[in-house]
Amino acid sequence: MTSLADTIIAASITVLANGLGGLPFVFVKNFPVELARLGWAGAGGLMLSASVFNLIIPGLADGGVIPVGIGILLGASLMAITSWFLEKRNFTLRGVSEGGGRRIILVLVTLFIHSIPEGLAIGVSFGSGLATLGLIMTVAIAIHNIPEGVAVSLPLRAEGVSGWKCVGWAIVSGVPQVVAAIPAYLAVMRFRPLLPYAFGFAAGAMIYLVMGEMIPESRADEQQRRSSAVAGMTGFLAMMALQTILVF
User: Fold this and answer.
1) Model confidence at 29: pLDDT above 80
2) pTM of the model
3) CA–CA distances in Å: residue 100 to residues 26, 48, 158, 238
4) How far apart are CA 86 and CA 232, in angstroms?
C-alpha cells in the first residue's frame, strides 16, 4: 500500500536527480565559443530524443494520435508566444547577451513544462496502490532526469552562468514534478486521461525550443555545422539508449 507521503518523497528524489546532471559544470570554468555551440547542439539532441522516446511514444500508446497531437500544437504555440513576448520586451539577464538570456529563459520554461507529465506519472503510479509500480517509475524518472539536468546546464554554463547556479536551476526545473504528483495521487482516475495531452504538450514545447533556438545557435560556419550535427546526434543516441535500458 502506498501513501501521499511516499509520493512526495519519490517526486522529491526525482527532482534532486536533475541537480546531479548539473554537478559536472561546477568544475567547468571556461566555455570557448566553439564548445558552447557544441553544448547547444548536444543539449538539443538530448531534448529531441527525450521528447520522442519519453513523451510522444508513451503518449501515443496511452491515448492515441489526437490528444498527443493537440498537446504538441498547444506546447509549441506556448513557446512561440513566449519567444515573441521576450523579443518584444528585450529581455536580458545580467552578464548574459540579450539573445542568450532569451534562450536561457526558454530552456527553463521548456524543462519546467516537461516536468509536469513526469509528476503526473509518479502520482498516478503511486495512486494505483501498487508500491512496485511506484518504485519502478521513480527510479526510471530519476535516472532519466540526470541527463535532463545536463541538458539544462549545458546552455546555461555556455552563457556564463556559474556551475552551482546551473545545479540550482536544474533542480528548480523539476519542481513541478512534486506539485503535479500530489493531485494526481489524490485523483488518479481524473488525472490519468490528461497524461497523453500533457506528454504532447511537453514534447511540442521541447521540439519548438530545439528547432527554433538550440539548433540555429549551434550553427556558425560550415565546419561548425558538421560538428554540431555530430554533437546533436550523439546527444540524441545517448538519450535513446538510456530510454531503451529503462524500458527493458
Assistant:
1) no
2) 0.74
3) 20, 20, 9, 26
4) 26
